[in-house]
């Protein structure tokens, strides 16, 4: 993929390095000259410009990018970049960093954001995921808030121990996508037996999360 990243601070550079390692083509857009440091991310194309200006994005060739990542430390900048990328250049996938959780409600379809990543929320979710057993933890919001990636770790006394995946009757608008077990990633099949300690990852709408909780508690 060709990926544009607005904001070449520590976050933007880290994302760029990961994407380049995965053999994607990356363009870093940064307006502060002091942040321009090609040796820090040698495999990236560097552009000294203001990503909030339509002409700058046009000159950078944003219309040819598959993904735009708004990764600056300013939520206002990230919203403007997201809106321009989606509405003016038709970028297929727009990912935006949320710096202040109080602004998270803004990062949605109206501002051109497909996926909003809130670092405080993600860190809190990872802490919950590490200590919460038997309860459902929301890890990530997907696709303009229409669905979430949620996780449940089955407790030692789960009534589902030894029962097949097909025994779990999930509500509409939800799907079990992965089982994590002892370092293994298992693509669930109907006859796979569940075990205590299994980490179940679901994609589901917010409306049915409570129904997933109830389904996992039934014997």
UniProtKB/TrEMBL annotation:
<keyword id="KW-0813">Transport</keyword>
<dbReference type="Pfam" id="PF02080">
    <property type="entry name" value="TrkA_C"/>
</dbReference>
<dbReference type="InterPro" id="IPR003148">
    <property type="entry name" value="RCK_N"/>
</dbReference>
<feature type="domain" description="RCK C-terminal">
    <location>
        <begin position="137"/>
        <end position="218"/>
    </location>
</feature>
<protein>
    <recommendedName>
        <fullName>Trk system potassium uptake protein TrkA</fullName>
    </recommendedName>
</protein>
<keyword id="KW-0633">Potassium transport</keyword>
<feature type="domain" description="RCK N-terminal">
    <location>
        <begin position="1"/>
        <end position="117"/>
    </location>
</feature>
<dbReference type="InterPro" id="IPR006036">
    <property type="entry name" value="K_uptake_TrkA"/>
</dbReference>
<dbReference type="InterPro" id="IPR006037">
    <property type="entry name" value="RCK_C"/>
</dbReference>
<keyword id="KW-0406">Ion transport</keyword>
<dbReference type="InterPro" id="IPR036721">
    <property type="entry name" value="RCK_C_sf"/>
</dbReference>
<keyword id="KW-0630">Potassium</keyword>
<keyword id="KW-0520">NAD</keyword>
<dbReference type="InterPro" id="IPR050721">
    <property type="entry name" value="Trk_Ktr_HKT_K-transport"/>
</dbReference>
<dbReference type="InterPro" id="IPR036291">
    <property type="entry name" value="NAD(P)-bd_dom_sf"/>
</dbReference>
<dbReference type="Pfam" id="PF02254">
    <property type="entry name" value="TrkA_N"/>
</dbReference>
């Amino acid at each position: 993929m060709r990926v544009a990243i607005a904001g070449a601070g520590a976050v933007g550079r880290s994302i760029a390095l990961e994407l380049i390692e995965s053999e994607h083509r990356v363009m870093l857009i940064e307006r502060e000259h002091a942040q321009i440091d090609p040796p820090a991310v040698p495999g990236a194309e560097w552009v000294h410009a203001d990503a909030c200006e339509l002409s700058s994005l046009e000159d950078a060739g944003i219309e040819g990018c598959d993904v735009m990542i708004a990764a600056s430390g300013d939520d206002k900048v990230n919203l403007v970049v997201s809106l321009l990328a989606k509405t003016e250049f038709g970028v297929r996938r727009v990912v935006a960093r949320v710096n202040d959780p109080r602004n998270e409600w803004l990062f949605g379809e109206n501002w051109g954001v497909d996926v909003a990543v809130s670092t405080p929320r993600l860190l809190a979710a990872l802490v919950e995921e590490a200590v919460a057993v038997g309860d459902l933890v929301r890890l990530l919001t997907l696709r303009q808030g229409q669905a979430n990636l949620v996780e449940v770790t089955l407790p030692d006394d789960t009534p589902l121990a030894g029962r097949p995946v097909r025994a779990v009757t999930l509500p509409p608008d939800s799907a079990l996508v992965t089982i994590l077990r002892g370092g293994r990633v298992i693509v669930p099949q109907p006859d796979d037996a569940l075990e205590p300690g299994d980490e179940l990852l679901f994609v589901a709408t917010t409306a049915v999360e409570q129904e997933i909780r109830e389904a996992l508690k039934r014997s």
